[in-house]
């Protein structure tokens, strides 16, 4: 079917709004899009080109409709089993991102040597050649002085190719410092399933067969890690089962759920242990998974210690220990007081959840709180207690997708590089008071937000050359003023981004990045709906500006320059080890390198010689893979872990975590201190054996600000329209803001319960000053019953002063539009994982009308 361009523009303009809100592309006026898939394709008729969206961590396979060289529409990849061919509302913002007039169009260099939030960098355009030459000079200087470890590479979002740029390049130069944003993202969350079942990652859910879903500190139909799938399937659980949402704020899921429990921030652990108590006392635990009393009589009675020898455990470890150490006294009445919720509701949800088992799941969020690790452990333990983990209709670890290994860089790493890559990392991970245990392994978790402190303190050393890409830590890190100071101190900083941003303000060189979803070559893997996938990123439009792919093209250009200056190892590595799997040809320029790397990495997925035994999709060659854009894995097979054991120390689901204990003991031994001393220094309350079981720790001791002076708990959330921190310069972001419950269009508002507002004499729309222990921000008040009294909430992502003309109030004068609460959230951590605190109301604030 053909459609005249003028007519098409007319319908698409009208339909875009409606479509964006429904997350659905099946509007009849848009059938041109559907029909071109099978029909003949021409430039004017347009065609769908597969790609991958990384607007959030769902990493959706998508397709972009391109007509006369212009990207005009976005939808989910029709072949995707993770999203059934739908994208979420934010997918549509891709179009505005591509055609954003404020994009950086050429490399630039700073001409104002002074750096600061209010210092205009006075950027001037330069060529790629000059930019790369300057960067190579700085790196050669480090090599000459044998201080290559003073090179720092910081990463936000990334594709598989981050292995080349972020993983290998620093180690080729000779630096241990590749710092990802993971610990300002969601690392705490991973500890919930790691400490219990040895899985460090995000879970997947079998919504089709689920009878009871608890969403806990997250909002799956709006954010978290699979909105298109949740939007498509939540109704099944709503119709055929029960949905309960636990969140101080009536989020999107809560607005549709059967139950909303507006818990007091930071007290979720109390509710979780009380639910466990209820389940045990009422004999509702899963006997097939956890086992039973030898004589079949339930001895779990409130207050009564149980003899471990009386219970036969099956796939779990330490259920009775957990009961004795933590659960026996903690009933729903206690938790109701602690969490400020209804006792009957705690019991009702615990009962409904356990009775639906194992067709049930708790879907929980990052819980980035100074005591978050134990809260998520307590929450995730419930998934084990009822046998929902690894069960049909429950939650699963999820499927991977085929991938071919990258060539090793080791043979090309010289002695300087080897020696200096082994130096202590800049983020202070593994220091006594910062165990940063990724996978319960001390000193292996990144402590992203602490890099600012480390740079300022020059501890363990100073940083001389830094590169950042796809990140904006001055905006996204809490207590961002630290990042402003730190980045002002770094003598040479390169920022690789498509948009000007708060962090770019401190750059000496700006490299305009190709957009991941439409201009670059890469691969991404993700999962949802019990399927995994490998999905392609490929150019769908001709680049309008002088942009390049950062992870591949920039690596190549840098390697070339370093070779010219006498350090050829990187160039040799890239040019000799990478070759086209079909033609055997080695790349000879940066773009060829990007394509070659993409073909190599995905070879197992598309090469008929390599994929013949794969049980998932098997494209017939590279061109076929490009055309389809995706390889779906087979569906997840349940109960394999029940049968074969969990990857924990005991091979069981650990209510008593030998896995976490080993981590703590290793760390304590390194410093020759007791585990209790580590707990004290990391701001945890547990001592002794309690530290190894999921338990509740009060948020009060780690709250910043006294209740008297700062009576409100501050929380924030992601807007439905947030492409992480990256969509605030799109006008649609502001036009449709109202799609977040309690929010309004065109504004940035702090949500406040009307009862609280009345006491403070605040009316809807008043400007209010929000003050924490570290600063104040002024923002508009929005009165809303959907927020628990005593709590104030605001969506993250607004308050940019340097992101473009829509995101800022005055871009030229660097005046923010709205407020970025990271400026008033104190720098603090869940030190077990090294994660930045932002949830759980750890920031106390006071509110005053201005
Ligand atoms: N208060 C508060 N703080 C938070 C959060 C919160 O909810 N509340 N969320 C946290 C979370 S979960 C995360 S993950 C972090 C995210 O924070 P960061 O990792 O810092 O990333 P973003 O701010 O999302 O985006 C950073 C930059 O990416 C650039 N960019 C956009 N598209 C592309 C592209 O295709 N290629 C390249 N190279 N660059 C691109 C943009 O110009 C932008 O400046 O923020 C965290 N900070
Ligand atoms: N729309 C959208 N979706 C996204 C992203 C995005 O930018 N926009 N980013 C992606 C990324 S990078 C990440 S890491 C994930 C994370 O996204 P989510 O898993 O959704 O988590 P956050 O938005 O960080 O967590 C905030 C939620 O926790 C609630 N909350 C805060 N404190 C407490 C508390 O003490 N108790 C309880 N029960 N609830 C609390 C807030 O009200 C809010 O609903 O989302 C991904 N999905
Ligand atoms: S923003 Fe997230 S959920 Fe939405 S289309 Fe992109 S990756 Fe998928
Ligand atoms: Mo994140």
How would you characterize this protein structure?
The chain is α/β, with parallel strands linked by helices and 850 residues long. It folds into four domains: 1-101 and 520-547 and 602-637, Single Sheet (N-terminal domain of TfIIb); 108-185 and 413-513 and 549-564, Rossmann fold; 202-396, Dimethylsulfoxide Reductase, domain 2 (3-Layer(aba) Sandwich), CATH 3.40.228.10; 701-849, Barwin-like endoglucanases. It is 32% helix and 17% strand. It has a seven-stranded mixed beta sheet with strand order 5-4-19-18-17-6-7. It has a six-stranded mixed beta barrel with strand order 24-28-25-27-26-33. A hairpin with a 2-residue loop joins strand 26 (767-772) and strand 27 (775-783). The site of one ligand MGD has 34 residues, from strand 24.
What key phrases describe this protein's structure?
single chain, N-terminal domain of TfIIb, Rossmann fold, seven-stranded mixed beta sheet, six-stranded mixed β-barrel, 30 helices, 32% helix, disordered N terminus, binds ligand MGD, binds iron/sulfur cluster, binds molybdenum atom
Strand-helix topology:
Blueprint: H1 5-22, H2 31-35, E1 47-53, E2 60-67, E3 70-76, H3 89-98, E4 108-109, E5 124-125, H4 128-144, E6 151-155, H5 162-173, E7 178-180, H6 182-185, H7 187-197, E8 204-205, E9 212-216, H8 227-240, E10 242-246, H9 252-256, E11 259-261, H10 268-281, H11 287-290, E12 291-293, E13 311-313, E14 316-317, H12 319-327, H13 332-339, H14 343-356, E15 360-364, H15 372-385, E16 395-396, H16 415-421, H17 451-457, E17 465-469, H18 473-476, H19 481-489, E18 492-497, E19 509-512, E20 522-528, E21 531-537, H20 550-564, H21 569-577, H22 590-601, H23 603-606, H24 608-611, H25 622-628, E22 630-632, H26 640-644, E23 653-654, H27 658-670, H28 675-681, E24 712-718, H29 731-735, E25 749-752, H30 754-760, E26 767-772, E27 775-783, E28 791-796, E29 808-810, E30 815-816, E31 829-830, E32 835-836, E33 843-849
Parallel strand pairs: 6-7, 6-17, 9-10, 9-15, 10-11, 14-23, 17-18, 18-19, 24-28, 25-27
Antiparallel strand pairs: 1-2, 2-3, 4-5, 4-19, 8-16, 12-13, 20-21, 21-22, 24-33, 25-28, 26-27, 26-33, 29-30, 31-32
The structure holds ligand MGD (2 copies), iron/sulfur cluster and molybdenum atom (MO).
